[in-house]
Specification:
213 residues; alpha/beta; seven-stranded mixed sheet; two-stranded antiparallel sheet; 11 strands; 19% helix; 26% strand; disordered C terminus; binds iron/sulfur cluster
Length: 213
């Protein structure tokens, strides 16, 4: 399942500021690797466990800490974050010990599956909100952080409630200084006029987002 030794996380992409992956301004981490195979998945490039880049937990934390004055939290999505439970538990434990940033976790596992996974409690101990369940294209919803209406919300702290989710935009389109475009959110628009689909890609100090060829 792509599990590492816990000192590093295999990451597909990192977005320093997003407004569509949870309440307020948030850093967003796309974890690499997912074997759940939802038809219509927006992020097939995150599926291979060999893709992305292995990133040291402390390096990831340092990057988040540098952003902390401009964000209210961190969102973990993918790919399947719970495929790397040891590393994720370590990252979130250190994050919560050092900051008051909130944590939103998106997982393709149902809530029943999440709670049955070995090691999931260590992750959930430092998560404020979980969005759980496969993306089911026939049940598309695209609001309140849910891509489809079978997905369930689990408020694990008093940090957020349902009202906080209604203000979250369903999509955002960001353009980098070099013309890179990233589309993010539970209801991303099709950019057919651009001739290709566009998605998050890459991990780098100056190139968090790139056009997908
Ligand atoms: S769980 Fe998420 S990343 Fe995995 S296939 Fe389903 S929608 Fe795609």
């Amino acid at each position: 399942m792509g599990e590492t030794d816990g000192s590093s996380l295999r990451v597909h992409a990192f977005l320093p500021i997003s407004h569509t992956n949870g309440p307020g301004a948030r850093a967003a981490i796309w974890v690499q690797g997912c074997s759940l195979g939802c038809p219509g998945c927006f992020n097939p490039e995150t599926h291979s466990p060999a893709g992305g880049q292995s990133v040291d937990i402390e390096a990831l934390l340092a990057r988040i800490m540098a952003l902390r004055d401009g964000i209210e939290g961190v969102s973990i999505t993918g790919g399947e974050p719970l495929g790397q439970r040891g590393a994720l538990a370590e990252l979130l434990s250190r994050l919560k010990a050092r900051t008051d940033l909130s944590v939103v976790l998106f997982t393709g596992f149902s809530w029943a599956e999440v709670t049955a996974l070995d090691g999931s409690a260590g992750v959930l101990a430092n998560v404020d909100l979980v969005v759980a369940g496969r993306y089911v294209v026939a049940r598309r919803l695209a609001r309140d952080l849910r891509g489809s209406d079978n997905q369930t919300l689990h408020f694990l702290s008093d940090r957020y409630g349902a009202d906080d989710l209604r203000a979250v935009p369903m999509a955002e389109v960001l353009v980098g200084l070099g013309g890179e475009i990233v589309v993010s959110g539970v209801g991303p628009p099709r950019l057919d006029g651009l001739g290709e689909s566009w998605a998050l890609s890459g991990w780098g100090e100056s190139n968090e987002v790139r056009r997908r060829a």
